[in-house]
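Figure 2 data, in text form.
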Amino acid sequence: MTIREQLELWEKDYLSPYATLSMHSKGREREEEQCDIRPVFQRDRDRILHCKSFRRLKDKTQVFLTPEGDHYRTRLTHTLEVSQNARTIAKALRLNEDLVEAIALGHDLGHTPFGHAGERALNRICPYGFEHNVQSVRTVERLEKGGQGLNLTAEVRDGILNHQTAGMPFTLEGKIVRFSDKIAYIHHDMDDAIRGGILTEKDVPREIGDVIGYTIGERLDHFIHDIVTTSFEKDDIRMSEPVAEAMKKLRNFMFERVYQNPEAKSEESKAEMLIETLYTHYLKHFEELPADMRRMAGAGEPVEKIVCDYISAMTDRFAIAVYEELYIPKSWHG
């Protein structure tokens, strides 16, 4: 018996009856020989962790564009916080930690530079639209490894696709990541907003604080404990009604005070203009794209989608550098 098979039997004996077992995975689009050490979801986690799109997250905006300071979140640190929240919940509920970690680490792989400003710009200008969760799935299925994709399991791809509020994953592990994403961004975006002088802890309304706490740490702890206690030994992942309502109010508060704050978002219109300009440029000069992306057009992929693939994969820094290279005059050196 291989180590992988022993681990699969351990899952069967130890995990909750509601957990997604590695041995019962719906499988991959392309069949592969099983690893002798790692179950399928652990293998997916490793593939995501080692892929190029994961590394690029370190230079992609979370909320604040190019902040002056070392402690503001990036898309990578957000991803790691989602993963940590999800694993804490999964472990307490005896669900599959490897699966939640793979979904969490992969959920934002397709996100644009400049956060949701970049996403809005591509969604507005591309005739096929653009959603980062759909692009994350496209990244792991089609774009990584020079067009081969990562060939992940159906459970991981489903969790990535449905991590937003509008979606609903078919595994409990995917539902954990869906909650963990919201908890993470509300938690760390408030922390960053306080660091940036946009909010103070005292600004949180009492109707929210009385339910889930008055400090960032208290609220994070309350959210996670509430999900665990409400979901324990149930075939669902949910919050209690008072906490879910408080979270909704806190999210609305963050939209009003941070996500739509003119001071915090003063540079976003420039970022959207930059993204739209690059999109228009590469539609006209498709030959400037890398060869592996140009080949996708020969295979029947629409050029508009391929241009979105290229731009959405950029880091903030690279997008700015490309824009400067194309449109900012340089000093003449005679």
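Caption note: The chain has a mean pLDDT of 94.
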